Amino acid sequence: MVSSTGSHTWELKLTVDHQYEGVENEFPLQVTGDLHVGGLMLKLVEKIKIAQDWSDYAFWWEQKKCWLLKTHWTLDKYGVQADAKLIFTTQHKMLRLRLPNMKTVRLKVSFSSMVFRAVSDICKMLNIRRSEELSLLKQSEGTLKKKKKKDKNSKEPATEDILNLCNSPVNSGLPANPGLYSKTMTPLYDPVSGSPASSTITWFSDGSSNEQNCSILALSHPTCSPEVLAEMYQPRTLADKAKLNAGWLDSSRSLMEQGVQEEDQLLLRFKYYTFFDLNPKYDAVRINQIYEQARWAIMLEEIDCTEEEMLIFAALQAYHVSKLSLSSETQDSICEPEVDEVEAALSNLEVTLEGGSKSNILEDITDIPKLADNLKLVRPKKLALKAIKTYWFVFRDTSISYFKNKESAQGEPVEKLNLKGCEVVPDVNVAAKKFGIKLLIPVADGMNEVYLRCDNEDQYARWMAACVLASKGRTMADSSYQPEVQKILSFLQMKNWTMCSQAASEPENIDMKPECFVSPRYTKKFKSKQLTARILEAHQNVSQMSLVEAKLRFIQAWQSLPEFGLSYYIVRFKGSKKDDVLGVSYNRLIRIDMTTGDPITTWRFSNMKQWNVNWEIRQVAIEFDQNVSIAFTCLSADCKIIHEYIGGYIFLSTRSKDHNETLDEELFHKLTGGQE
């Protein structure tokens, strides 16, 4: 091997990745170490002698697994020597993406940009705002086992199931419609039906199939046979759930650097569960894909829910399907402006991050409201029955104090509970008139468990909303308190159905296949007729909703589940002799006992001072206020994934409606990249 620098010439063999048959693809060139990459490209193209547009081509260094994109850098600066295997190949290649609605799209994506940028481009093609909430996921081997048994011979899905978007504006180098991200843009979707407005169709490439493309992404087709469902991966344990999050790609590296090849299939998923500024006028595709991700998570039992909740989800889906039969009529009808505005306001659902929006200053300096009520306190006793006793409870600021009775409320309380940083878990069964709130309050040696039992829905909604806000360090003076109360009441109302004798005789519901709307566990538990009757009972409370509203209610109900937004990883904490599960959420980390599933400790991001990774031993170390520090290694995935998750959620908490919608990419990489 001859390797020199400066003016000494040496031979470098280059491979050209072109599509021409019978044309040479290996080209030896005489080069010097001070030749810059742009000059090398020029020399190579002159030698190839094929007239074509080479502007999308760049050098890929096979051994080092990196792109040579800085064309002004010299070969010496990159460290390229005579034994380097450089491939001159296109930066944009075809990729198959499985969307949350389980549809596969095929489109041209940058294999040389960082994944964060590539996802942004993909979302522009698919008409999904807020691309920072999504990322790309490689399906891990453990979650594919079930499929492989059945699909030994068919590696790819059937061609007709793949939606080709290879002629979209982003692919052809044209700028995406600037109106897509503009605050003054005209509505792209009917906020009631979710069908595309006529102007939206032109955003896709020309041709009559575009309306169909829009519809496939913005409208739902939820029927799925129990047989198909049975073939899909269903996690049974926390360890199984951890497998679902093992394959997230590194947002700070390119697809090619992470071993992704042309025509590979990846999953496009909402990675961060903070759906900012959802608006039915512009977000029909985004709302539908969030709805679909929620629907599949519930059907495949990736998230736990009660029987009562499962029937609500089934009713919303079943209703959704019956509405779909009218979708062709809905698309042709034009909505009156007044209804349009009202429905958009009603349906507009938003989950703001803690710290994402500040409440009105005047509101904050007024007297902070308080709650005072007789509630039952339930304390679990070891080796004994639960002790239930009624006390007079007072909720003030972010603390609950309770007294023997109302008269003694001026004196010292029996106990004062500070709810900042606690876990709040609903324990509700509307049919049985059970309205419980489970509080897991952090103490020095773990979590203190307290149950509160309310008398009715109204009392429960007020106390539950106060607990949820207090856990985030907010009081009832916060502007989000009343909306939180209404959200809880609305969910309870959906659960509080009454049997209606006419429901079962509605002709449009006769053909309902209930197995398509519930997880396999409930298909085994109930007969088909029983399920149909119970779904139709639940359906009475959702029958007046518009199509988009039904999806938003589904998303809202999903967000109300205790496990919502938790991504699980198997970790080993420093100093521990056994493995634990770490739950990563938008505002906290939870250490969970792997065997029992019980939370051990919670750490909130708002108390975090710094976090870093020791790359040599792959250990994540985090420092919190009050000299609390933790360190752990990740066993179910690369530690970079958890590091990026934490940084990503902190990045998303900086978003504001006041800011321009362009993202601070540099800040994202600073918070998530780490120093490897």
TrEMBL record:
Residues 376-472 form the PH domain. The keyword Transmembrane helix does not apply. One of its GO terms (biological process) is integrin-mediated signaling pathway. One of its GO terms (molecular function) is integrin binding. InterPro entries: Band_41_domain (IPR019749), FERM_2 (IPR035963), FERM_central (IPR019748), Kindlin/fermitin (IPR037843), Kindlin_2_N (IPR040790), PH-like_dom_sf (IPR011993), PH_domain (IPR001849), PH_Kindlin/fermitin (IPR037837). It holds the Pfam family Kindlin_2_N. Keywords: Cell adhesion. GO terms for cellular component: focal adhesion. PANTHER family: FERMITIN 2-RELATED, FERMITIN FAMILY HOMOLOG 1. Belongs to the kindlin family. This is FERM1 protein. It comes from Acrocephalus arundinaceus (Great reed-warbler). The gene is Fermt1.
